[in-house]
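Supplementary Methods. Inverse-folding protocol.

Structures were first reduced to a C-alpha cell string of length 361. This string, shown here, constituted the complete conditioning input.
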C-alpha cells in the first residue's frame, strides 16, 4: 500500500543523491514493517491521526493539510482548507484510509516508516478512536527558504504547493483555527524560513493575540532575524531554535549551503541582548546543533558550548541525525557524547541559563 519512491525536482546534485538513497531506504523500511506486522499479527496506528500528537499535523503555506512534517511530495496530503473545514479533512476519507491501512499492517505512505508517531498495536488491539488534535500542530507561513540544506527536499515541496507564502488574511484564519482547536503548542515552522515572509512582523503578534496561552516555537537559520522590527515581533514567541550546525562558515556549509554562520551567530547574540535589555525570560533561545561526522570533534563541541555561553543563549542542544546518510555522527552513536549536558528527546542538551530555561514547557 505504501507509495514507491517518487522523483523530485531538486537541482542540487548532492541533495538529489541523498534523497534518492533516503527514498529507497524508506521504501525498504516500509516493506519490512509490513512483513513484520504480517508475521507477528501486531498492526499499527498513528498518534498524529488519532489527534494525540504534539507534532506532525501540518497546515502548509497553500492551506493544504498534511499528516506529517516531511511531506515533500504531497503523498501525505489529507485535504485542502480552501475546500473543506479542518474537521471534514481530519475525519475525512483520506485520513480514514490512512488509519485503516495502518490497522491492517500497511504503510499508507513511505514516510510512515520513519515517523515518530507510528506506533505498534498489541496483537488484536483496536486502534484508538480519533479526536481533533489539541496538543500541537505545525503552521507553515512559507515554503521558501534562503538556504539549501542537504537533508531537506524543500524544492520538491515547493513544486507541489499552490501558494508559496501564506497571505496575512489566511494566516489570521489559521490563528483562529488554532484557537478554536485549543492548541497547546503551535510550531510556526516547517519547510521554509519563517523570517523570510514579508509580513512576519505582523504575523507573530497576531498569532500570539489569538492564542495567548499557547506555547509558540519558531525554528530559523537565523540569518534573516536581522532587524529590531523582527526582534520585537519575535518577543511574542515562547522559544526560538536557531539551526546552526557548526562553528564556522566552512563547517556549516557542508550541510546548510548558502547560509552564513557569522550572520546566524550574530543574530543569536543580538536577539539575546535585545530580550535581556527588556528584562524578559522569553523567548527561550536555543542553539540547535545537528551532529554530523564533520562537526562532532570534542574540541569543536567544547568550543560551541563556550561560544553559546558567551553570547547569552539559554540552551545549546546536540541532535543526532541520519540525514544525510553519509553524515552520521559515529561519535554520538558510540556514546562519546554521554558526558555532555543531559540526555533529552533531542539527543543531548546543555542548559546555560537555567533561570530562563526553566520557563520552557
Amino acid at each position: 500500500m505504501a507509495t514507491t519512491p517518487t522523483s523530485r525536482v531538486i537541482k542540487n546534485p548532492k541533495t538529489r543523491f541523498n534523497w534518492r538513497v533516503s527514498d529507497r531506504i524508506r521504501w525498504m523500511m516500509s516493506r519490512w514493517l509490513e512483513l513484520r506486522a504480517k508475521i507477528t499479527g501486531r498492526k499499527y496506528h498513528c498518534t498524529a491521526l488519532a489527534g494525540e500528537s504534539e507534532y506532525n499535523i501540518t497546515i502548509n503555506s497553500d492551506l493544504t493539510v498534511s499528516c506529517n512534517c516531511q511531506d515533500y511530495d504531497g503523498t501525505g496530503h489529507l485535504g485542502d482548507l480552501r475546500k473543506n473545514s479542518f474537521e471534514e479533512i481530519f475525519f475525512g476519507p483520506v485520513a480514514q484510509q490512512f488509519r485503516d491501512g495502518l490497522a491492517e499492517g500497511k504503510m499508507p505512505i513511505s514516510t510512515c516508516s520513519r515517523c515518530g508517531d507510528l506506533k505498534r498495536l498489541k496483537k488484536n488491539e483496536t486502534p484508538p478512536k480519533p479526536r481533533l488534535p489539541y496538543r500541537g500542530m505545525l503552521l507553515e507561513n512559507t515554503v521558501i527558504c534562503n538556504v539549501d540544506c542537504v537533508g531537506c527536499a524543500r524544492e520538491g515541496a515547493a513544486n507541489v504547493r499552490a501558494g508559496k507564502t501564506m497571505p496575512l488574511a489566511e494566516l489570521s484564519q489559521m490563528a483562529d483555527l488554532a484557537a478554536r482547536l485549543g492548541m497547546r503548542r503551535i510550531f510556526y515552522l516547517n519547510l521554509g524560513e519563517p523570517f523570510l515572509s514579508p509580513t512576519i512582523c505582523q504575523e507573530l503578534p497576531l498569532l500570539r493575540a489569538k492564542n495567548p496561552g499557547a506555547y509558540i516555537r519558531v525554528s530559523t537559520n537565523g540569518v534573516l532575524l536581522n532587524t529590531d522590527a523582527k526582534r520585537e515581533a519575535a518577543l511574542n514567541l515562547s522559544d526560538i531554535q536557531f539551526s546552526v550546525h557548526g562553528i564556522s562558515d566552512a563547517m556549516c556549509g557542508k550541510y546548510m549551503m548558502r547560509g552564513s554562520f557569522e550572520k546566524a551567530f550574530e543574530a543569536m547574540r543580538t536577539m539575546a541582548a535585545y530580550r535581556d535589555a527588556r528584562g524578559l525570560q522569553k523567548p527561550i533561545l536555543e542553539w540547535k546543533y545537528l551532529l554530523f561526522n564533520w562537526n562532532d570533534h570534542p574540541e569543536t563541541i567544547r568550543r560551541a558550548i563556550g561560544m553559546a555561553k558567551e553570547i547569552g543563549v539559554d540552551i545549546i542542544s546536540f541532535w543526532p541525525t541520519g540525514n544525510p546518510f553519509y553524515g552520521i555522527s559515529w561519535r554520538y552513536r558510540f556514546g562519546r557524547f554521554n558526558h555532555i549536558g543531559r540526555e533529552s528527546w533531542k539527543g543531548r542538551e546543555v542548559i546555560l541559563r537555567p533561570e530562563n530555561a526553566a520557563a520552557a514547557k
